[in-house]
Amino acid sequence: MDNDLSAQIEQARFTIAARSHIEPRIALILGSGLGDLADAVTESVTVPYTEIPGFVQPAVAGHRGELVIGLLAGQPIAVMRGRFHFYEGHSMQQVTFPVRVLHALGCTTLLATNAAGGLHDNWRVGDLMLITDHIFLPGLAGHHPLRGPNDDRLGPRFPPMVGAYDAALQAVARAVAAELGIPLREGIYMMLAGPAFESSAELRMCRTLGADAVGMSTVPEVVVARHMGMRCLGLSLITNLALPNGPPANHQEVLDAGDAARPAFTALICGILARIDSSAATIPTSPVPL
Ligand code: HPA
């Protein structure tokens, strides 16, 4: 994929654009158990990932694997119902390829959602968390989507990640949550490779390193979106408490929590979408001088 990334992006973009009369401006990635929000999209066109060149096949229960383009809260949107995970065996480039394509389709804003384990014992299953920053453990260890040759047409070689989560979008999320009476926690999301849930010692490490929630997604997509200058917002649904002395996490509770929290989550996302200025351009990512 690295050799001719731009050509692959264009092929996928062309395939999708040929099917939809709406040019999406906002990309929404729906995490584990949250995919049903895609049903609320109107004037929708659905493109299964299997029909998009360059996309890989999703494998996890709860991820349907389709792109839904249409209108949500009045906004032209591309919704990813299901995403690709590193733990499925895909490369970081494969995991983030859809974000490249959504940017090529016209999306300048990325709203990424996920299921996450909460690292605080006073948090509750079903809590929503605004992601204020991230720790990209696999990326720091060398599994980074921008590793390898850089295509300067897409973004700079050394993109900064300070302020990756757009301050103005975070302010919108806080305001909407307050108006709707939805409690919104805030914190730092740490991405781990998975697929095993963390050991007790690893959970202690995550807390020591400053994380508030742990998960297995989102950060690669945000990094690539920022590489291209997209404005990013991240929201986590706390599906389980990931506590060193607590019960072990399991995938079913992750999916069940999605069911219970869906109304608040849906209201929050639609409220945020309605407030986003989707005519806003990307924010050019300035190269970091060496
Ligand atoms: N750990 C890692 N990823 C997760 C968790 C967790 O506890 N919950 C949801 N995704």
Can you put this structure into words, describing what you see?
- The protein has 290 residues and is of the alpha/beta class.
- It has one domain: Rossmann fold, CATH 3.40.50.
- 30% of the residues lie in helices and 23% in strands.
- It contains 7 helices and 9 strands.
- It has helices at residues 5-17, 92-105, 137-140, 167-180, 200-208, 219-227, 251-275; strands at residues 26-30, 42-48, 66-72, 75-81, 109-118, 128-136, 184-191, 213-215, 231-241.
- It has a 5-stranded mixed barrel with strand order 5-8-7-6-9.
- Helix 1 crosses helix 2 (92-105) and helix 2 (92-105) crosses helix 6.
- The two termini are 28 Å apart.
- The structure holds hypoxanthine (HPA).
TL;DR of this structure?
The protein is of the alpha/beta class and 290 residues long. It has seven helices and nine strands; from the N terminus they run H-E-E-E-E-H-E-E-H-H-E-H-E-H-E-H.
The assigned structural class equals alpha/beta
CATH fold annotation: Rossmann fold
What is the number of E strands? 9
Q: So what's the CATH class?
A: Alpha Beta
Task: Kindly list the characteristics that best describe this protein.
binds hypoxanthine, 30% helix, 5-stranded mixed beta barrel, alpha/beta, Rossmann fold, 290 residues, single chain
Topology:
Layout (H helix, E strand, L loop, with lengths): L4 H13 L8 E5 L11 E7 L17 E7 L2 E7 L10 H14 L3 E10 L9 E9 H4 L26 H14 L3 E8 L8 H9 L4 E3 L3 H9 L3 E11 L9 H25 L15
Parallel strand pairs: 1-4, 1-5, 5-9, 6-7, 7-8
Antiparallel strand pairs: 2-3, 3-4, 5-8, 6-9
This protein binds hypoxanthine.
The site of hypoxanthine (HPA) has 14 residues, from strand 5, strand 8 and strand 9.
